[in-house]
Write a structure and sequence with these properties.
The longest helix has 40 residues, at 174-213. The N and C termini lie far apart (66 Å). With 214 residues, this protein is mainly alpha-helical. Helix 4 crosses helix 5 (79-86). The mean pLDDT is 79. The chain has helices at residues 2-10, 14-24, 36-43, 52-77, 79-86, 89-93, 98-111, 114-119, 130-135, 140-165, 174-213. 74% of the residues lie in helices and 0% in strands.
Length: 214
């Protein structure tokens, strides 16, 4: 399996991008940083058969498909089986354990439905946030919407990074730069969304009080 994934990374096209990002959103350890920035980097080359917009769309479609697999499994199999899998040998091979699933579930419980969106931007939570959404039986339409928005934003960030770096660094230095920037950008997006949520809550609380006084 690992050799096949390596082959896909070395032969990026719209099909392999979708497939790898589907794996990334399940429990298979395929970081999106290994897929989207290199694809966007190659899309920036003159005469490339890749288009950066289609790279983002395929990556987001793949993320949705993988997230739906996790969501469906969690919704219909339930908490005991999901945690048993996390503690199994295969689960450990997928870099999964009970603590990571509990962390994702706690994050979802603390942030509610919007946690599915924000969680797509959080390193270590991104590929697991669909599990607690399934366990909580979150409405499917809401789940798909928040997953698509969150995954789309993250893929746009990664694609923009890869596309911009195409004119700055040689390909053999790309991953070093992506690794250096991706976590910081992810946390910056989280801060931005939390600030937006806080503002909307503030406006929602302030409006009734203003109406009451008037």
């Amino acid at each position: 399996m690992s050799s096949f994934i390596t082959w896909c990374i070395e032969h990026l096209n719209y099909w392999t991008i979708t497939f790898l990002m589907m794996l990334e959103s399940t429990v298979i350890p395929v970081p999106s940083e290994l897929v989207v920035p290199p694809a966007a980097y190659r899309a920036a080359a003159e005469g490339s058969d890749l288009n950066v917009i289609l790279v983002v769309l395929c990556a987001t479609l793949g993320a949705d498909l993988g997230a739906l697999i996790n969501y469906t499994a969690a919704r219909f199999l339930g908490r005991p089986i999901i945690y048993a899998f996390a503690n199994s040998t295969f689960g450990h091979l997928c870099l999964l354990n009970e603590e990571k699933v509990r962390k994702a579930e706690s994050y979802f419980n603390d942030h509610g439905a919007v946690g599915t969106l924000i969680g797509r931007l959080v390193p270590g939570i991104r590929h697991l946030i669909s599990l607690p959404a399934g366990l909580a039986k979150m409405r499917l339409s809401h789940f798909i919407f928040y997953t698509t928005v969150g995954a789309g934003i993250w893929n746009i960030i990664l694609a923009a990074m890869g596309y911009a770096l195409a004119s700055v660094v040689p390909e053999d230095q790309l991953m070093e730069k992506v690794t250096a920037y991706s976590h910081e950008l992810g946390y910056a997006m989280i801060a931005l969304f939390l600030g937006l949520v806080a503002y909307l809550i503030y406006k929602g609380v302030k409006k009734p009080k203003t109406s009451k006084q008037s």
